[in-house]
Predict the 3D structure of the following.
Amino acid sequence: MTIYDVIKRPLVTEKGVEKKDNERTLCFEVASDANKTQVKQAVEKLFSVKVEAVRTSNFEGKLRRRGKFAGYRSDWKKAYVKLQAGQKIPEFAEV
């Protein structure tokens, strides 16, 4: 699994931007089978920063209906990556 397979996209939400500004923490959607070590290595290599800690959480897909048709969204995984003190935070969340 390459580093581009591990990190799918940054999550730019109100909560994520607040964590980025106040806690030096970045939020990413990552591959479901990626572990914390792979996420740490991918972020360090992609953004040239040092990572202090990685927290992950799994989300189950919700049931969604369109009239009589029903289906499930995909399961996905989120990673919170905390950077070490003194590291420059990448600006991928500019609006």
About this structure: The CA atoms of residues 23 and 61 lie 28 Å apart.
